[in-house]
Amino acid sequence: MRRPTRKRGLLVRIVRALLVAVVGYYVLCVALLFAYRVWDPPITGVQIERRLQALVSGADYEPKQRQVKLSEIPLDFQHAVIAAEDGAFYAHHGVDWAEIRLVVEEAREGERFRGGSTISQQLVKNLFLTTSRSPVRKVLELALVFPAEAILPKDRILEIYLNVIEWGPGVWGAEAASEYHYGKPASKLSREEAARLAACIPAPRSRKPSRMNEYSAIIRERMRSRGW
Fold it and tell me: Which of 9, 11, 67, 206 is found 20 to 30 A from 78 (Cα to Cα)?
C-alpha cells in the first residue's frame, strides 16, 4: 500500500506546484498590465517564441521594431486594422460574443473555420502567451483579457497592439511593417497600403501586401460602411 500512496503524494505535489506556477504567472501578467499603462512592453511572449525557434533551427533572426505613439499611426491604418480584425473593438469588453456565436454557427454548417478573437484577446496572447493552439492557452487568454480591458484604456490597447504584433519575419509593429513592406514610415501610408498591411495580420509570415488585392478591398469596404 505504501507505493501507491507515495505515487499519489508525488502527483498531488506536482499538481500543486503547477497550480502555484500558473497562479503566480497570472498575477505577474496582471501586474505587467498595470505597468503597460505607462511603459511600452520591452519584449513579448511571441517575440521570445520566435527567438527560441530561430535558435533551435539555427536560422538568422534580426528583429525590426520601433514603437510609436498611436497619434503617429494614421487613422486610416488604425481603422483598417479594426475593420479587419475586430469591428466591434470599441463596443465589447474583451470578448465579442456575437462574433463567437457566428464562428460556431459557420463551423456547424461546414464552412472553413476562422478565428473569433478580438484585438484585446490577440494582445494578451502576444504579450504573455505564444502562437501555439491549445485549450490551456485559450483559457489563459480568456482569463487575462478581462483584466486587460479593465486596466488599459481602449486606445492604449490599440496602441500596444499596433506596436507589438508580427508583420513579417522578425518584423514587429506598424512602424517596422511600413518600413519593411513599403520603405516609408507608417505616417506616410496611403489608405490602400494600410488596408493591405491589415490584410496580412492573420498570417504575417506568409502573406504579402502586394497579394492582398481581394481581402484589402473587403477591408476598405468595411471601412466605408462604418463611415471611415
Answer: 206
The whole-model pTM stands at 0.90
**Of the options 3.40.830.10, 3.40.30.10, 1.10.3810.10, 1.10.1740.10, the CATH number for the domain spanning 41-225:** 1.10.3810.10
% residues pLDDT > 70 (the chain): 93
Three-state SS string across the chain, please?
A: CHHHHHHHHHHHHHHHHHHHHHHHHHHHHHHHHHHCCCCCCCCCHHHHHHHHHHHHHCCCCCCEECCCCHHHCCHHHHHHHHHHHCCCCCCCCCCCHHHHHHHHHHHHCCCCCCCCCCHHHHHHHHHHCCCCCCHHHHHHHHHHHHHHHHHCCHHHHHHHHHHHCECCCCEECHHHHHHHHHCCCHHHCCHHHHHHHHHCCCCCCCCCHHHCHHHHHHHHHHHHHCCC
